[in-house]
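Pilot study result, target chain (149 residues):
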Amino acid sequence: MIEGVQITKLDIIPDERGMILKMLRNDDPIFQAFGEIYFSTIYPGVVKGWHIHKKMTLNYAVISGAIKLVLYDDRAGSPTKGEVQEIFLGRENYKLVTIPPMVWNGFKGIGTESAIVANCSNIPHDPEEIGRVDPFENDVPYDWGLKNR
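Predicted structure:
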C-alpha cells in the first residue's frame, strides 16, 4: 500500500425503508478538518484522472455504482515511490480511502451503471493547488485497460 494512504471500512445500515451509508465523522481518527464535500459522477468505462493535490487530503467513498481508483506515488523520499495501487470501490466494497497530498489519483467507472463518488476534503477546492495530466499520455506507469486476470 502507498505510504500515507488509509483504507477504512464503512458501515451500511439497512432496514425496510432503505439504508444509511456512513462516511466520515469529526471524531473519527482519520478526520483532519472539513474543507468541503462534493460528489463526482462517472459513466461506465470513463476515466477521470490523473490529478494531484499539493495541499488537499482526499476522502473518497463510492455511494452508488462502482469504480477502480488508482493511485501513483512519485513523491521524492517516499518509501513507496514508484508504486501503483488499485482499489475497487462500490456498494460491495464500501470503504473510505484517504489520499494524502502529492499522490497522483484517478478513477474509472466500472460495471454497467454510473457511479457517484463522494469526497470530503480537508480544505476547499482551489484550482491553483491541483495538477492534472492526460489519463493516457503521461509518465504514470499505468494502463487503464481491462485486465482479464
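One observation from the pilot: The radius of gyration is 15 Å. A full batch analysis is planned for the follow-on phase.
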